[in-house]
Amino acid sequence: MTTRQSLLVFGATGQTGQHFTRLALAAGHHVRAVARTPEKLQAADDELEVVRGSIGDDLDLDALLDGVDGVVMMVGDAAAQRERLVNTEFVRSLVPAMRRSRTRRFLYQAGGLSAAPDKRLSPVLRLVRSTIARGYIGQHADNEAVMRYLDREARDVEWMVHRAGIGSDGPSKGELHRSSTSMSIGTFVDCAAYNLRTLLDDSAVHTCDGSTYRAPR
Ligand SMILES: NC(=O)c1ccc[n+]([C@@H]2O[C@H](COP(=O)([O-])OP(=O)(O)OC[C@H]3O[C@@H](n4cnc5c(N)ncnc54)[C@H](OP(=O)(O)O)[C@@H]3O)[C@@H](O)[C@H]2O)c1
Fold first, then answer.
1. How far apart are CA 30 and CA 18, in angstroms?
2. pLDDT given for residue 3 in this prediction
3. Ramachandran region, residue 146 (left: φ > 0; alpha: ψ -120 to 50; beta: rest)
4. Residue 114 pLDDT
5. Which residues are near ligand 1 (CB < 6 Å)?
6. Does residue 46 register a pLDDT over 60?
7. Domain ranges for the chain
């Protein structure tokens, strides 16, 4: 991918997405954000374009993807995802539209309590998921269905999944690194910075990794 990117962002008003949008604009990228409530995005920036919409709407994806280099999705709605795999349904329409528009790269933020395809969570994470995080069970199922779909049916697209472990909206605790074996409880700003770096990282293509503050050896 070239230096200045035109990015289509879903979830730009969320806890990770707000940081992501600010960082992407600061890095000189163009952001086209699809938001249910555009008023939540307060940045006045020539490079920020906000389109009102929901992933549950009949969005004109071909128009949204026009001129876009990469798509970033940091979307969650725990109540809706308890009822239906809303993110999966959307990604299943997004990917064909990306193929039509030849948009190659896609970063999807899932959670560390969602297992990567054909992998099992550790016993500790399984316990957390079934106890203190059980309210998010639909979100985990949806994130896992997205990962399975990408892995099995969309390997022609340069996707990457960040299985983020997020604990707070505090200040940066350092730089997160991609890891298939360990995971840190990060802050939203660090996860957002990780997403922006990872989107541009060819070696992250087709991975469903977590992120850790531990520097790689
Ligand atoms: N929060 C955590 O601790 C945590 C930890 C690990 C992983 N994750 C994962 O990271 C992702 C994002 O989490 P987050 O905490 O950053 O997000 P968040 O603060 O919960 O915000 C969710 C974002 O999704 C948007 N959204 C929800 N439904 C939508 C729809 N139908 N159409 C368009 N946009 C919609 C929201 O828009 P509105 O402003 O309109 O509501 C908001 O921008 C989720 O998949 C979650 O599983 C979160």
1. 14
2. 86
3. alpha
4. 97
5. 10-11, 13-17, 35-37, 40, 54-56, 74-77, 109-111, 139, 143, 164, 166
6. yes
7. 6-212
